[in-house]
Amino acid sequence: TVGTIVSFLMYGEMFFRPVRDLTEKYNVLQTATTASERIFALLDQPTDEAAHPQSAQLPARPLEKSIEFRNVHFSYDGSTPVLQDICLTIPVGTLVGIVGATGSGKSTIANLLLKFYSPQRGSILLDGIPLEQIDTTGHRQRCAIVLQDAFLFSRTASENITLGRNLPTTIELLWGQLRKTHPELAQRLSSLEQLHERGTSLSSGERQILALLRAIAGEPELLILDEATAHVDSHTEHVLMDIVEQARRNTTIIAIAHRLATVRNADSIVVLHHGRIVEHGTHHELLARNGYYATLWRLQQLEVLATTNGEMHPAQQHR
């Protein structure tokens, strides 16, 4: 009968639904297994102190004078040089830009400063003390880094900034500073009740702003911006650099950038090429030398001009 056929179809659907669910869960299980293997492999790595047992760990102290790279050489595989004979002094409280082509060694400088790696030759000195002799945990607590892609949790914007730290006064101060310069943006971000996981409900620029506020909230002595403005538009970049300017009073800042306009107002700019420092000076000094930096600047300005013209209406381009 018709009723029997309908019943058969309904029971068939009821039977196959959990089978389909089981298949989907199996794919999730496979992904989770792969992820857990990577996590446990990372947790099984020896600690920094265990990897360098001969190093006497001195307590981290407040920076008072400078960070110095003295003839630093580094290679990830032990044969291909990434940094070669890097000599650089960064006075405390300054903003230093590090620029260069992809693969020139910019991010490696950040990795060395955070003690993820140690140079094969040469040394990094904090107020004259070799970095390898300074306690790793204490040193990293005094540093903060903002990467290209910020990870945000499914919490409020303020909770993503504090990350469980008791910083009520600092949070109010940060929101207050942002309201003075960008009131609409501050109102939107501070009023968000719940972000989507990884911050997918925000634009890439808004995610980077929260990541920068998170880094500054801890009042680090050293703030590293590793291509933090690479994926944002010019307006958002302006907002980010406004926040950086407000943090300059109490923090030494190293801004690693591909776009030269990002660091044009830095106290000094270091230009890397094939792992070597080829130029060093302010934006105007480097342009006056008409060297590698000036060439990069002109090329990027042409790219900006071409993009701007491409976005204009054809009738406007001939005005």
UniProtKB/TrEMBL annotation:
SUPFAM superfamilies: ABC transporter transmembrane region, P-loop containing nucleoside triphosphate hydrolases. Keywords: ATP-binding, Cell membrane, Membrane, Nucleotide-binding, Transmembrane, Transmembrane helix, Transport. GO terms for molecular function: ABC-type oligopeptide transporter activity; ATP binding; ATP hydrolysis activity. Gene3D superfamilies: ABC transporter type 1, transmembrane domain, P-loop containing nucleotide triphosphate hydrolases. SMART domains: AAA (SM00382). Signal peptide: none annotated. It is a multi-pass membrane protein. InterPro entries: AAA+_ATPase, ABC1_TM_sf, ABC_transporter-like_ATP-bd, P-loop_NTPase, Type_1_exporter. This is ABC transporter related protein.
